[in-house]
Design brief:
Elements: E1 3-7, H1 18-31, E2 38-44, H2 46-57, E3 65-69, E4 82-89, H3 90-100, H4 104-119, H5 128-149, E5 155-159, H6 161-170, H7 177-187, E6 191-195, H8 205-214, E7 219-223, H9 227-236, E8 240-243, H10 263-275, E9 280-284, H11 288-296, E10 301-305, H12 307-310, H13 315-334, E11 338-342, H14 350-354, E12 361-364, H15 366-375, H16 377-387
Parallel strand pairs: 1-2, 2-4, 5-6, 5-12, 6-7, 7-8, 8-9, 9-10, 10-11, 11-12
Antiparallel strand pairs: 3-4
Length: 389
């Protein structure tokens, strides 16, 4: 089942995962009964595909995908086990992904399926009925590819720090973040997140201990790599820890952890956690350097920082940040890391991130707690889960 993929795009942006695209092509061959057939995929820019379009189709300008079959006419005997070539313009795919509000990988995969169907005999230009037949088959194959990558529905982990923040503002014992966590679980959340800060500005040690004793799902302890907090986590045994950068004056975590700049320290912390049976996630920006470093220090997960996407002031900026997150999630997945995401996600911008097939879980706090003021916490969690379907 050889799939030959060549990337002739000179630029490094927009980013996408060649490995995931190759895997999609390999699975297409299996789905369509061609497991032993060779398929060639060439990724090019608009100038390159425009030249091919002019030479082979006598049409000017770029297009999104071209297919060159090796199984037609007199050449069929020579083309045994050689299906043909698919040429995709990454430039055009990137523009179309932006217009459709999907990741670049999703658009490249759709163009791969379209080009592939041309190679095995479908042709939407022949007639309306053929166009309908091809469209139905495209949708069927894309759904199968999507199901292959995501066998489980994406999970929601709710951060209850803000409940503790409200409590600490009055220095009393309510509202109770432990009670809030229980309501979130009953509403369908599959994890609870708390950030135990060095200054204990919101979540307190007692809260975390009670959560460890009462949660039915999963406790994710966010923490800085300070020795006191490390020792607390080792004694507590949460289901996982997420290492985050921590500044005393920040209102909330402002960006991703610089894993590449402190690999020795983080690898030691991760080793201590691993020896205690605690998986570690690293909260990082959508950056290839940080992903590679996370792999090198032997983290189990990365959590992609979505704050810049959430805070984008224009559609172009938001689309650009989304593309970075999508590519980073795919790159981390490809590297063998498990992938979560979070920060700043709300009832407007979450669905798009939730649709990314390489992300397992979203961590959301502020938006759910803000919504809960008006509709109640149970309803707020259920509404968020509805957006993630």
């Amino acid at each position: 089942m050889p799939v030959l993929l060549r990337n002739d795009v000179c630029r490094s942006f927009p980013r996408f995962s060649e490995l995931l695209l190759r895997r999609a092509a390999e699975y297409l061959l299996i789905l369509t009964g061609h497991p032993d057939t060779e398929l060639s995929i060439l990724l090019v820019d608009d100038d390159q595909i425009a030249e091919l379009n002019r030479s082979w189709r006598q049409k000017s300008g770029p297009t999104n995908v071209l297919s060159f079959s090796l199984t037609e006419g007199e050449d069929f005997a020579l083309a045994f086990n050689l299906l043909g070539d698919i040429v995709i313009s990454v430039d055009t795919a990137a523009r179309e992904a932006k217009q459709e509000g999907v990741s670049l990988h999703a658009r490249l995969q759709a163009l791969l399926v379209h080009g592939f169907l041309h190679l095995i005999g479908y042709d939407h230009e022949k007639s309306k009925s053929e166009a309908v037949r091809m469209l139905i088959k495209e949708k069927e194959l894309l759904q199968q590819l999507t199901n292959k990558r995501r066998e489980k529905m994406i999970k929601l982990a709710v951060n209850v720090d803000h409940v503790a923040t409200l409590r600490e503002a009055r220095g009393i014992n309510e509202p109770d973040p432990v009670l809030a966590a229980g309501i979130c679980e009953l509403a369908g959340a599959e994890g609870i997140v708390v950030h135990l800060r060095e200054d204990r500005r919101h979540i307190q040690d007692r809260d975390v201990r009670l959560l460890r004793q009462t949660l039915k799902t999963k406790l994710n302890l966010e923490m800085g790599a300070a020795e006191e907090i490390i020792e607390f986590a080792l004694a507590l045994q949460p289901d996982m820890v997420t290492l985050v950068p921590e500044k005393r004056k920040e209102l909330t975590t402002e960006g991703g952890l610089n894993v590449a700049g402190q690999k020795k320290k983080l690898k030691a912390v991760i080793g201590r956690m691993r020896d205690a049976g605690i998986p570690v996630s690293l909260f990082i920006d959508a950056d290839s350097r940080q992903i590679e470093a996370a792999k090198n220090v032997e983290a189990t997960y990365v959590e992609i920082h979505t704050g810049r996407y959430a805070d984008a002031r224009s559609e172009d900026e938001r689309n650009r940040e989304f593309d970075l997150i999508a590519a980073a999630a795919e790159e981390a997945y490809e590297a063998g890391l498990r992938v979560n995401a979070g920060h700043g996600l709300n009832y407007v911008n979450t669905a798009r991130i939730a649709a990314l097939g390489s992300i397992e879980e979203l961590s959301i706090g502020h938006a759910i707690m803000a919504r809960a003021i008006f509709v109640g916490l149970d309803q707020a969690v259920r509404e968020m889960l509805g957006l993630m379907l």
